[in-house]
Specification:
2 copies of one chain form a homodimer. With 140 residues, chain A is an alpha+beta fold. Chain A is built from 6 helices and 5 strands; from the N terminus they run ααααββββαβα. The first copy, chain A, starts with a helix and ends with a helix. The structure holds a DNA duplex (25 and 25 nucleotides).
DNA sequence: CTTCATGCAAATAATTTGCAGTAAG
DNA sequence: CTTACTGCAAATTATTTGCATGAAG
């Protein structure tokens, strides 16, 4: 049984080809918007409907299989649930890179939920800038 | 001349009643979605059009007067541009609170842009959880 | 005056829904 | 078998655009 089938089973979801493919392309590319997922999956599974993509993203988000990454001025992207990390988002090409959380940041956040009358459940750190690739291209 | 008129003038934008009111309600409530802004402003300026709200938000965002706060699974909210801070977002009531960035966090981020081949331009830290008010209500 | 902003209505894009048919366990 | 999932088409919701009129500097 594949990695994806296991994730789905543990969430009580059936392992359809649609879902397997959605998970697989998100895994391959790291972070994808709804349309990107659709365009990519229909290459291998042409009968897929966009509505199915929407329904499944919502469902898999609720089940904690997927995580939504909201992005300033863009449509949100989706990633597989994984260990804590931060995002480096390129404002030129839109690419999103993961970077592991540093200890320092970890601790800073941990102390927050105590200080505040706030039960912390999830954190999201997005750093916006221009990636190396785009900076190279701009220079030429 | 009001605070808002100054902000607009410095950005090269005309000070219309519409804009003044949009800025004023965002300032009053802290963080607002497009519809909330519209609903609130028409109370005092009933002829306002929703399209005008959209146009101005886009424009004032480009000019750096407003900042978009993207939120997981919700429509984005807008705030006045202000000193660096992080957001505490309540997943129950949707309320957004600002909290000043701690030194620790500051430094952690600063070191990032050096390490990485990435020109850091802006950062956005969102902490999701349940606010005190909602926790109280849940307990009752 | 001159330029830029507004409001309206229409166009487009994004997301959700209901339902009959199909596949997974 | 039984329940959950899919695809389609239609409905909703969100956002953008063009243009004639009106207001700001």
């Amino acid at each position: 049984m594949t990695h994806y089938a296991t994730m789905l089973k543990e969430s009580g979801l059936k392992s359809t080809f649609q879902r397997m493919n959605i998970l697989s392309v998100i895994d391959k590319y790291g972070h994808m918007a709804v349309d990107d997922i659709y365009e990519e999956v229909i290459k291998v599974h042409p009968s897929l409907s966009l509505a199915t993509v929407y329904k499944n993203i919502l469902l898999m988000k609720e089940k904690g299989v997927l995580v939504e990454v909201p992005i300033m001025g863009k449509k949100p992207k989706y990633e597989l649930a994984k260990e804590d990390h931060i995002h480096l988002i390129c404002t030129e090409c839109g690419n999103v890179e993961d970077k592991h959380c540093m200890d320092m940041t970890e601790k800073a956040f941990a102390s927050l939920s105590d200080q505040e009358a706030f039960r912390l459940e999830r954190r999201q750190v997005n750093l916006y800038g221009v990636c190396q690739k785009c900076r190279m291209e701009a220079a030429s």
